[in-house]
Amino acid sequence: MNGAYLLLIALALPLAGAAGIVAARLRPNLREATTLWCACALFGCVALLVPLVLAGGRPELRGFEAMPGLAIAFRVEPLGMLFACLASSLWIVNSVYSIGYMRGNQEQHQTRFYVCFALALFSVMGIAFSANVFTLFIFYELLTLVTYPLVTHHGSTEARNGGRVYVGLLLGTSILFLVPALVYTWHLAGSTDFRPGGIMPAGVSAGALLALLVLYMFGIGKAALMPFHRWLPAAMVAPTPVSALLHAVAVVKAGVFCVLKVAVYVFGLELLAGSTDWLALVAGFTIIAASVVALNADNLKRRLAYSTVSQLSYVVLAVAVLAPLSVVGAVLHIAAHALGKITLFFAAGAIYTASHKTEVSQLDGIGRRMPWTMTAFAIGALSMIGLPPAAGFVSKWFMLSGAMAASHWLAVAVIMASTLLNAAYFLPIVHRAFFRAPAPGDAGAVHGEAPLPMVLALSITAGGTLAMFFWPDVPLALARQMLGGG
After folding, report:
1. Looking at the 3D structure of the chain, how many domains does it have?
2. Is residue 228 part of a domain?
3. Fewest C-beta in 10 Å: which of 88, 114, 194, 369?
4. Does the structure show a pLDDT above 90 at 32?
5. In the predicted model, what is the mean pLDDT of residues 347-371?
6. Whole-angstrom distance between the N-terminal and C-terminal Cα of the chain?
7. Can you spell out the DSSP letters for 324-376?
8. What confidence tier does 43 reach under pLDDT thresholds 50, 70, 90?
9. Is the pLDDT of residue 145 over 90?
10. 216 occurs within a structural domain
11. Inside any domain, residue 294
């Protein structure tokens, strides 16, 4: 099939799925079957684009032009291809998990939940395949709006407060920084189209480049650079499948994806030389500070949330190093973190569903009664730390190799120190689960695993985390093709 048609179908399928879910709202089995069918069809469509892109094809679609140089346009390039594959495949697994979670916890407003999930994937496809900053901006903002009802799903005061922080910070950073960055890019380059090697014209001053880089890095609030990170832990009031969506499938991945896309296709790595020292400091501080907060958090989802803040800044730090190897590592880390972190959140949700436990201090001996869940958690934890045989080892290896090749010793020190911190806040959870006896009176509190769909989903993502360690070929090929002129 023609690549442009596949691109159009990939954009249309989540919208069709949302409409189908609404139509089936009175029949839960059909509603959830529609969700699964749409997720599988989207992944199949996206997967068909992979060989075209690896062979050098770049399918395109162009829509209307709002102003000269500002058009709604889509183009499939290697980085977007990886993001689309990741999001579409994890939507399937997250949908399976959601069925078990939403039914197991008798959640309200399930139709709205599945509709917003489909609309979030529509936004992600638009971000992944955007051909210019203007299109990227539109779908980036749409993603914020359609995920707001998911964050506030429970309707409690805590959920509404968390939702206000979520939407306030993300829209605020966009209005204050990202909109000026879009306008300034258009002013400097006369276009916002993404182009390998960047679109900045010769003769742009170092001051102008620095100002534009600052606007983009803080305007992309979904990358959670400090001090604009609080939306992420605030959003943990949402149901666990939403947390998985925020941390693995869509929102935060959209943030670091945008950071990479802007660095490679708006500025170009060569042009950024000498302009990223401040960015390395901010990213390094975020990595260490968030790790320290995670180390002291007893609430499991809060610990995972601050772990995400830290892990995202690995991507930003790798970009700031500007070495080809580190940028390849940044691309791989998007995939590795997605697989590992969704596994961890799935496990947290399974623990809550089976035992209603939410604190790390409550997990003594739980691995003996939930072995599948806690083994998957251990695999996800290994990936976050960066130990074999988990995917996080591969991405950290490339990032560390690139930093050493560029003699960027700050980045080397941050990666090594944060790896120790990661181990300090993840390994005690695994130790508690498997090597401590349950607390007195707690022996019968957990009767077994969570519902089968949840255990199946977390087992699949844990398996994917291991598989990427042994077979990283496709993400690695896409990352290298991106730097080779993608």
Report:
1. 1
2. no
3. 369
4. no
5. 89
6. 22
7. HHHHHHHHHHHHHHHHHHHHHHHHHHHHHHHH---BGGG-TTHHHH-HHHHHH
8. very high
9. yes
10. no
11. yes
